[in-house]
Amino acid sequence: MPPEEQPDAGRKSSRATGSKASEGTGGTGRWGQRLERAVLVGLETSGSGSSGNRATARRGELHPAADGDPLEANSTGNTTISAGPGLDADESLAEFRELVASAGGEVAAEIMQRRSKPDPATLVGSGKVEEIAGVAASTEADLVLFDHDLTPTQLRNLEKALPCRVLDRTQLILDIFARHARTREGQLQVERAQLEYMLPRLTGRGKSMSQLGGGIGTRGPGETQLETDRRKIQRRIDQLKLDLEAVRRVRKQQRQRREATPVPTVALVGYTNAGKSTLFNSLTGAQVLSSSHMFATLDPKLRAIELPSRRKILLSDTVGFIRNLPHTLVTSFRATLEEVAQAEVLVHVRDAAAGYAEEQKSQVEKVLGELEVLSKPRIEVLNKIDLLQPEERQALRERSKVGGDTAVSALTGEGLEELLKAIDDALFTDPVIEADFSIPQQEGAALAAIEAGMVIHTRAYEGNVVLLRASGPASLVGRLRKFRVREA
Predict the structure, then answer these.
(1) 460 bridge partner residues
(2) How far is residue 83's CA from residue 77's CA, in Å, rounded to a whole number?
(3) 403 and 442 share a domain?
(4) Strands 345-351, 265-270: parallel, antiparallel or unpaired by DSSP?
(5) CB 3.0-4.6 Å disulfide test: which of 114, 122, 310, 415 passes with 71?
(6) pTM of this prediction?
(7) Which CATH number belongs to the domain containing residue 111 in this structure?
(8) CA distance 477 to 453
(9) Boundaries of domain holding 361
(10) Half-sphere exposure of 337 (CA within 13 A, CB side)
């Protein structure tokens, strides 16, 4: 780094966005650039959380708060954080922080507002907006992030009142998807979701949206700049829909070719960062990206694996879900999520070490309900048991035997054999059957097919004939039916 670009704790610089930031206090990203600093804002309405589940946050650190402390930022910069629906304070805040980290930012401060109902103009109320503005200025934040969806009116009002950019939860998730989209299909889907979110929020965004000028020679039918922008965006959305429809047709053709051979598909589904990609790599030997950041996987991956019965299946790794997943994303990624709809069995991967595993489970089932696949056979997999204490791990494995869940560690490989057997038992396409065969030794192709695709239980020789008892897929048994021994 040249000397003039060296970080200096006493020097301040203006970013391109117009907000100031201290280079000495901010972290740096992968390529050395300063991470954007964000003020996190949450909203707790009456009945949405427990008053006893609270914590105090100071510049990204959590400290226990005494019961009865006010939910306000005090002069020392402390802010009391309360839980969102189904989550306690630490869990709700930790998840939102993970989203910020996945987007390439760092947390400068957190603020929680407690109200009986959201303010229709600013979500959090005018007094809290002034406080947020002060915190953003004092921490030299680049943006303010709301862990809540903002209406177009709320977004415009907050942008006018705050000294930096304003993003809501949906915008943050869309930004993460845009960062992680690698394939052309993924980029199309993200762009469509972003434009559909932007369309109703164009009004009042700067001078570019103002009325076109009037005067001599300009009177008559015309349109505002806002209408022009809306028309351009709508035209682009229509084109993206056509492009994504072409993607769906290609995927449909690929599935039809796969369905010509009896190879069932099993899809990994689950909450984001539950360890699906790590499990996918452990089962298939693939090297797909597995990251601790949320939404590292956007495009489905398919790999063939062999089950203990010697049956072949296609295992699919899919995009993770999250609470309050924007509906525009579910709609835009329907082409990708069709792999889930076409799967014969769903493997629901859950984080056994998460403090709010049941909340994560309900959110995943909510999205599966939107995709109308809740009726499919489902295997519950409790992943990351290597993060548990030995006694917790043993207790979980005992409960799993009773409840039908499978406890595994995708990282260490513990429990993967039991998972493969559970998948084997859940499949109904091309069932496993046991049969006796009498095959002349010169029929090498038939013997090789049994060796490669079936489990041999007994083997005997009578002269030039091999007598076998084996179990395997019904399709393979059918192809070898002329060698099958019929019982009297």
Answers:
(1) 467
(2) 19
(3) no
(4) parallel
(5) 114
(6) 0.69
(7) 3.40.50.11060
(8) 10
(9) 263-426
(10) 19
